[in-house]
Amino acid sequence: MPDSSGASPVEAAEPDRPLRILIGADTFAPDVNGAARFAERLAAGLVERGHDVHVMAPAASRKHGTWTEIHEGQEVTAHRLYSWRWYPHDWLRFALPWRIKQNSARVIDQVQPDVVHFQSHIVVGRGLSVEAEKRGIRIVGTNHFMPENMLEFTLLPKWVQDFAVGLAWKAAGRSFGRAQAVTTPTRKAAQFLEKHTGLRGVHAISCGIDAHKYSPNWEPRTENRILFVGRVTGEKQIDVLLRAAALLPAELDAKVEIVGGGDQLKNLQQLAAELGLADRVTFTGYVTDEELREAYHRASVLAMPSIAELQSIVTMEAMASALPVVAANAMALPHLVHDGENGFLFEPSNAEDLAAKLRTVLEAPDDEYRALKEGSLRMIAPHDIQTTLNTFESLYRGRPVADPVTDVESAALPE
User: Fold this and answer.
1) Which one, of 50, 55, 3, lies nearest residue 29 by Cα?
2) Least confident of 139-153, 155-169, 211-225
3) Which run of H or E residues covers position 358?
4) Smallest Cα–Cα separation from 194: which of 205, 207, 178, 183?
5) Kind of pairing, strands 20-24 and 52-58?
6) Exposed, middle or buried: residue 297 (CB in 10 Å: 0-12, 13-18, 19+)?
């Protein structure tokens, strides 16, 4: 059972010395997803603070081994494991499960870390938690995944998937149960993990963003542009967004920009054509960080129809760019989007409701629209990456922590 109270040997010996940290991840850069981006920013931020950071993750190609990689401008020692491509998915590679304990033991003995921080229980986290526990090394585990999302790509029949979900949650309970501290990005996600694993005391710690890298665009709107950013996969429900766009009044001349890649790209392009939206929907694919910031500046509103967000870094980036957000009322999104303050929530999978909420934003008078933009900036302030790094440093040293307060209270609405 997680217990982040009480000092570890690391703290007792040298409370403020730099730490040697081994981060384990099943997905890491150059993968493009929230978990990979968080692990990359965490590693780089810890290096910038003077810690010796190692990352163990599947190789991004057939080349595997140990070398130095540059992430966010910082040098990180990468231990890339021999991996196989999972072809039902458009980019996923995985470390071989039957070799993960052997590989974990080898890397741990080579690195001699003060703490092991694994980012998922699926393969890498399982191996690292087993081998670190044997050696008495402090373990911190963070959950970014729901088994339901991964099983979408297994090609198993639905009834088998339901059975497999139960087994996956039991496996998660075993791996996270070896950790002295367990975290997940939001309180909602923490409650979800506790419910399905029986764990207690799970910390809600925001993934955090480098808010200073994003800036508002206060220029008057010249068009109505709806932006989606993320993996182009089934659980993101981008089809709902396209159907909603087709319901908007023609006089709005609303355009849709889809940033990201994934296995549903061709299907969605076909759907856009069937809905008569081919000339108003742009699929940009993957973009650079600078191009993404430009996309946030072009947009009038971010649409997040996904029903499986444990936090949604994209939504936070959009908020740091002062974008109003229309998001599904599901999982962690209500923690970030408050009706009438920085956007609106809509009924999940309901294209009509999504269209209505998008229309409310796009048709808002200038003063109301600016208030939504200002609301996003106010509500993103507690999610600064430096607060996240401070909290994880304390967990690594075995110090008690109070979860950062990231749910900004709703502003009082005028009567």
Assistant:
1) 55
2) 155-169
3) helix 351-362
4) 183
5) parallel
6) middle
The amino acid that residue 142 corresponds to is: T
Question: What DSSP string runs through 251-273?
Answer: GG--EEEEEB--TTHHHHHHHHH
Single out the residue of 354, 348, 331, 179 nearest to residue 254, CA to CA.
354
Query: What pLDDT does 311 receive?
Result: 77
Ramachandran area for residue 389 (φ above 0: left; ψ -120 to 50: alpha; else beta): alpha
Cα–Cα dist 372/368, whole Å: 6
Q: Cα–Cα distance between 66 and 277 in angstroms, integer? A: 48
Beta carbons within 8 Å of 239's beta carbon, 6+ residues apart: 264, 267, 268, 271
Could you give the maximum distance between any two Cα atoms of the chain, in Å?
A: 68
**Single pTM value for the model:** 0.74
CB-based contacts of 44: which residues, under 8 Å, 6+ apart? 71, 72, 73, 74, 76
Q: DSSP H helical segments within 25-123, as ranges?
A: 34-48, 100-111
